[in-house]
Amino acid sequence: MKIMVVGGGGREHAIIKKLKESPKVEKIYALPGNGGISQDAECVAIGAKDIEAIKKFASENKIDFAVVAPDDPLVLGAVDALHEVGVKCFGPDKKAAIIEGSKVFSKNLMKKYSIPTAGYEVFSEPEKALEYLENSSYPTVIKADGLALGKGVIICPDFETARDGINSIMNDKIFGDSGNNIVVEEFLTGPEVSDLCFTDGKTIAPMVSSMDHKRAHDNDEGLNTGGMGTIAPNPCYTEDVAKECMEKIFIPTVEAMNKEGRTFKGCLYFGLMLTPNGPKVIEYNCRFGDPETQVVLPLLKTDLLEVMMAVEDEKLSDINVEFSKGAACCVVMASKGYPQSYDKGFEVTEEELSDNAQVFHAGTALKDGKIVTSGGRVLGVTATADTLEDAISEAYKAVGKVHFDNAFYRKDIGKKALAIKNNQ
Ligand code: AMP
Ligand code: GLY
User: Fold this and answer.
1) 35 in helix, strand or coil?
2) From 318's CA, which of 38, 160, 181, 262 has a CA 20 to 30 Å away?
3) Which of 116, 150, 180 is the endpoint of a domain?
4) Domain count, the chain
5) Burial degree of 368 (CB within 10 A; 0-12, 13-18, 19+)
6) CB of 413 within 8 A of CB of 353?
7) Rounded to the nearest whole angstrom, what is the distance from the C-alpha of residue 356 to the centroid of ligand 1?
8) How far is the CA of 142 from the centre of ligand 1 (A)?
């Protein structure tokens, strides 16, 4: 089969490497892909948001199956466009992708269907928001309604921070129209868990749970980033917690979307906080997480293409989605200065890695036949092993074999998870 994967980061590289394991896959195109991905797929210079060009390419090249991985094209309706030209896809249509595309939508959905989440208020006028925030207790949380490159959430320790946040989101429009409305949300506490689920709107197949590390530096210090590393499974996500989440959150969410006439098919990402009052939804994403995918998919034992096709055909109940009992760790190697300014264009070299390690490229380009850095997050170095402890040490061993100038990475990915696990 001829497959097309829309996107060009570490998540897409992990998806492509997994799809290549399927005996059904003959050819994979990546739109636009990246330097590292070009070693595993044919990269085509079409941007992930260029819906018309994506549609035209799929139709002209007789693509048998498409995977739309990033949030932007999903929210813009890439799956609807591909369906119009008869291309089968993995990913929600525009009506369902709103679960990530609008926080006002997702908060109202949770309220309407009694799905546990933080209490909240919605504002469309900055003056009203400020009036409310003057009388709020702190800390509190402000969220831009629409997509904001993962930067639309501001945790406010005091009114001054909240006022500056409202100004930049609603008046200065730093996220454009995504800031036309905002959500002011109750501040929750507790360990965070990411759980990604395959769903066809009828059956839900949860994937192995994971833990992201969002801050730039060790001990969760420094600025928020797109994610500096992940481990799976997340030791906080015990069988009891998983059962509770399935009953109180996953099933009610999928049923709520059906009732709203917005059946969700694809990967539904639950960002959860395990609060003293039980698990609550922090965010929904309408897609695979990045860098969660880089630890989740290496543990998937079932043929990914078969699972994705079953989701599209609404036959997920026919498939037994299995994960290995082991663990995985992904350490992101970034460019010094990320998430602020950084230099690019340094050559990336790799010594031979052991069989249990893989390098997923996020920000690399091909230049004169060499792989060079082209982004802030450059690589996700992942290892799998029987235990979390070994997965972490193997991932760091692999990091020592990958080189580029100005590289930096966190030295403590998985440390917190290991401490929790050892205390259980
Ligand atoms: P999001 O972009 O929605 O994933 O939010 C980014 C991060 O902000 C989350 O991973 C949490 O650590 C934090 N966060 C979001 N909402 C809340 C909340 N209501 N209470 C506490 N922390 C939050
Ligand atoms: N790692 C968080 C996300 O993909 O949104």
Assistant:
1) coil
2) 262
3) 180
4) 3
5) exposed
6) no
7) 32
8) 9
| pLDDT in the model for residue 151 | 79
> Within this chain, do residues 174 and 246 fall inside the same structural domain, yes or no?
no
Instruction: Let me know whether 164 and 230 are in one domain.
Output: no
Flag whether the pTM goes above 0.90.
Answer: yes
Handedness of CA 132, 140, 293, 201 (dihedral sign): negative
Alpha carbon nearest to ligand 2 atom 5, residue: 289
309-346 residue pLDDT tens? 999 999 999 999 999 999 999 999 999 999 999 999 99
DSSP codes, 125-138: SHHHHHHHHHT--S
Separation of CA 135 and ligand 2 centre (Å): 32
Q: Which residues are 272's β-sheet partners?
A: 193, 281
The answer to whether the CB of 285 is under 6 A from ligand 2 is yes
Question: Is any ligand 2 atom within 6 A of the Cβ of residue 289?
Answer: yes
Helix axes 126-134, 159-166, angle to 10 degrees: 170
How deeply is 83 buried, as exposed, middle or buried, from its count of CB atoms within 10 A (0-12, 13-18, 19+)? middle
Q: How many CB atoms lie within 10 A of CB 334?
A: 25
Domain boundary (142, 158, 180) is at: 180
Q: Is residue 111 part of a domain?
A: no
Convert the pLDDT of each residue in 78-111 to its tens digit: 999 999 999 999 999 999 999 999 999 999 999 9
Distance 27 CA to ligand 1 centre (A): 39
User: Which ligand lies nearest the alpha carbon of 283?
Assistant: 1
Ligand 1 contact via 188 beta carbon (within 6 Å): yes
The answer to the question of residue 119 being in a domain is no
- Whether 81 and 172 map to the same domain: the answer is no
User: Do 192 and 273 meet the contact criterion of CB atoms below 8 Å apart?
Assistant: yes
Q: Within this chain, do residues 162 and 203 fall inside the same structural domain, yes or no?
A: no
Q: Would the CB of 153 count as within 6 Å of ligand 1?
A: yes
Domain presence at residue 107: no
Q: Say how many Å lie between the CA of residue 282 and the centre of ligand 1.
A: 6
Residue 98 half-sphere exposure toward CB, CA atoms < 13 A: 14
φ, ψ dihedrals at 39, nearest 5°: -80, -15
Ligand approaching nearest to the C-alpha of 292: 2
